[in-house]
């Protein structure tokens, strides 16, 4: 009896191990690089929102963007711990409490990042496609209520992974003695949460992008500059979203198929590695989100550069002034044209 229990524990411990240690060390290096680059960038943006821009007084969507950068910073906190696990040859922490805390932080802050990216695009969609229509989002975006509501709505989505205790906090491979993915309700809820957090916002982003682009095509008179800026913003959001989240979603689907069909252990290990690698790619969202801040407001971009990179701001101003002067100068008159006109 004791011998069987020890063999079972040994098997579960082995299931925590990374079968391709060199590959996981590479993943750890990528996460450390993302952390080194993204933390000061997002930290400066957070400082800028609070002390320079005073987002709570803004009449634009700066409240949404502040919550977006806050979610990114909280997500970045997980990267050193996850990198350490990968370097030690572990896919997940063997400590159940640490693993669940990491999973909670990951689900909450990744969900918040996706939610505020989506809300930013929806806000721009209403401003461009339905400029005169009153909507709840426009009324609440000036106050923190809707942001607090989004955070509260995301909390229940983190409950399913916390409901069950399993070795190494792995919901895809260790389902208990008799449970399977299709029969275990908790695991099914985990997968529903994972896919709905990504697929539903993606379809919303596609819809907003298509409608705003169509609006730009139909507008033949009037100011098209703001409309083009809106197109650039929603397109940037959709590109960042697609690059960071869709690959790991496809890998998750493949991994579930491999698990359900009970393919060979080698294929399952390969699917695990691919999924974990593309999950690391999703952390690039923390590094690419500042692009959304720049494209969302020219005022934000100008103030940010003048505050933290004044030499870049001066260069851009000098270029703009020189181009303005060149365009303002009259065209030189040629003698032959004067003669012909006379």
Please summarize what this structure is.
With 342 residues, this protein is mostly helical.
How would you sum up this structure, described in words?
This protein has about 350 residues and is mostly helical. The chain has helices at about 1-15, 20-55, 60-75, 80-85, 95-130, 135-140, 145-155, 160, 185-220, 225-260, 265-280, 285-295, 300-310, 310-330, 335-340. The N and C termini lie far apart (about 115 Å). Mean pLDDT is about 80; it is low at about 1-15, about 170-180 and about 320-340. It is a multi-pass membrane protein. Keywords: G-protein coupled receptor, Membrane, Receptor, Transducer, Transmembrane, Transmembrane helix. GO terms for molecular function: G protein-coupled receptor activity.
Euclidean distance between termini CA atoms: 113 Å
What percent of residues are in strands? under 5%
Give the SSE order as H and E letters.
HHHHHHHHHHHHHHH
- Biggest pleated-sheet summary: none
**Stretches with pLDDT under 50, minimum 5 residues:** 1-13, 170-178, 320-342
CATH topology: Rhopdopsin 7-helix transmembrane proteins
Percent helix? over 70%
Mean pLDDT equals 78
Q: Based on CA inertia axes, which overall geometry fits?
A: globular
- How many whole angstroms does the radius of gyration measure? 25 Å
CATH top level class name = Mainly Alpha
CATH architecture descriptor: Up-down Bundle
Number of strands: 0
Class by alpha and beta content:
mainly alpha
Fourth CATH level, the homologous superfamily:
Rhodopsin 7-helix transmembrane proteins
The total domain count is 1
Tally of helical runs: 15
């Amino acid at each position: 009896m004791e011998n069987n229990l020890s063999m079972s524990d040994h098997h579960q411990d082995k299931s925590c191990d990374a079968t391709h240690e060199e590959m996981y060390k590479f993943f750890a290096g990528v996460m450390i690089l993302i952390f080194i680059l993204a933390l000061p960038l997002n930290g400066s943006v957070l400082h800028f929102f609070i002390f320079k821009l005073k987002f709570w007084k803004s009449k634009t969507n700066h409240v949404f963007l502040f919550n977006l950068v806050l979610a990114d910073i909280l997500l970045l906190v997980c990267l050193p711990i996850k990198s350490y696990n990968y370097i030690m040859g572990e896919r997940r922490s063997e400590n159940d409490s640490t693993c669940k805390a990491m999973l909670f932080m990951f689900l909450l802050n990744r969900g918040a990042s996706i939610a505020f990216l989506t809300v930013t695009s929806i806000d721009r969609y209403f401003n461009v496609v339905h400029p005169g229509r009153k909507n709840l989002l426009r009324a609440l975006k000036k106050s923190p209520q809707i942001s607090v509501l989004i955070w509260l709505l995301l909390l229940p989505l983190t409950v399913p992974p916390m409901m069950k205790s399993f070795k190494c906090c792995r919901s895809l491979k260790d389902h208990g003695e008799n449970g399977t993915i299709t029969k275990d309700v908790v695991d099914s809820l985990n997968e529903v949460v994972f896919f709905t957090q990504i697929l539903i916002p993606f379809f919303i982003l596609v819809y907003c992008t298509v409608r705003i682009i169509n609006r730009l095509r139909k507008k033949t008179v009037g100011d098209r500059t703001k409309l083009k800026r809106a197109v650039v913003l929603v397109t940037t959001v959709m590109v960042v979203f697609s690059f960071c989240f869709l690959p790991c979603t496809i890998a998750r689907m493949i991994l579930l198929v491999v698990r359900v069909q009970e393919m060979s252990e080698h294929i399952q290990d390969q699917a695990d590695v691919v999924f974990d690698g593309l999950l690391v790619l999703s952390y690039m969202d923390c590094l690419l989100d500042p692009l959304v801040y720049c494209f969302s407001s020219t005022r934000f971009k100008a103030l940010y550069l003048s505050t933290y990179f004044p030499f870049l701001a001066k260069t851009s101003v000098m270029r703009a002034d020189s181009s303005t002067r060149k365009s303002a100068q009259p065209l030189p008159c040629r003698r032959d044209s004067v003669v012909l006109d006379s």
